[in-house]
Amino acid sequence: MGDYYYSARSGERKWRPVVVIFILAVILATGGILYSNYMNSGNLVKVITLIRTQYLYPVDNPRLVDGAIKGLVNSLNDPYSVYLEPKTFAQLQEQIKGSSFGGLGILVGIKEQYLTVVRAYQGTPAAKEGIMDGDIIVKIDDHDAKGIDLDTAINLMRGPVGSQVKLTIDRRQGTTGDLQFTRTLTREEISVPTVEVSQIPGTGISYITVSQFTERTDDEMMEALSKLQSEPAQGIILDLRDNPGGALTAAVDVASNFVPSGPIVYIDYRAGREEVFQSEGQAMMQLPLVVLINEGSASAAEILAGAIKDTGSGTLVGAKTFGKGIVQTVFPLGDGAGLKLTTARYLTPARNDIHEKGIYPDVQVDSSEDHSRDFQLEQAVEIMKQKIAG
């Protein structure tokens, strides 16, 4: 992982210059933070020296520096700011460049700090290995998945087509056999739709599900809305439940189909700089709109839901959303590593900060343990019927 190993004896003379250079670099980079906190910086040097001279096992210099960097990032108490080890950062870079990458065919979200399978698509590597909706992913290869941020988890599960990844699964409900088991999955090129459209029988209501936001989502939404024009609908129910988010620009493009001209989302940076994404007000469908949300609706899904709520373009039904309203930027570091750092926050058109607060529905409907019925959808249909009746 980019470490270079030295024995305790051969590395001893090199150690003090390395420590001095490292401390000086940190002081310069942080504008004198360590200088203004002399006692703490002294403790840092002392701890490094004690580990180097007194710890039972030899530890190489890069490993200590690597640990110090992780400690700095972890001290932010921000689960979305993450030090990316070289392998993880390389995977992310490959994904950004559009390289041919394979996946497992699962949609995941974070529920109570656990990485949870929201949907396992039929015919994919995950489904073939028996992974089911609701399964908790405990480990990805040797990485502990509890408390992991969603982007890092997705990047760990993606990789070259034909390569393998090992998932440790915790299955807690409704099954027999082992509660925890491990499966080795071979990545395949995955192509599953992010937008699905159907008609609710006998109602004139179109039901559109958006499972996540990718570069394909806007085109898929345009196709779905075009289909509605050829098969006239009286209203639209847009389902964003358990949508973990994705690409900001995709959410903005989709929102432009539903909200009037004006702001969709503000991006608020630390130095007072602000960026705004606008709707051109060229909505394809001038139809009544109901939007389903729940605690699994996050990030880009919340941008869309927030824009619809603040502009009065539709009625939100369901449960409070997850509450991820911040933006991360990825910075390259030395030795092939990287840093994903929170650099901005989302604000809704009414300038509401939804981070760790979520978006409340206009009509609260809790999910039911009775999986034979979807009470949230049923309520959405009733509200839409009232809108149509007018």
User: What is the name of the CATH architecture of the largest domain?
Assistant: Alpha-Beta Complex
Summed up, the helix count is 11
Number of domains: 3
Low-confidence stretches: 1-21, 27-32
**What do we call the CATH homologous superfamily of the largest domain?**
2-enoyl-CoA Hydratase, Chain A, domain 1
Portion of residues in beta strands equals 15-25%
Largest sheet: 6 strands, antiparallel
- Cα end-to-end separation: 63 Å
Overall pLDDT confidence? 83
Fraction of helical residues: 25-40%
Q: In sequence order, what are the helices and strands, one letter per element?
A: HHHHEHEEHEEHEEEEHEHEEEHEEEEH
Count of beta strands: 17
Q: Using the CA coordinates, give the radius of gyration.
A: 24 Å
The CATH class of the largest domain, by name, is: Alpha Beta
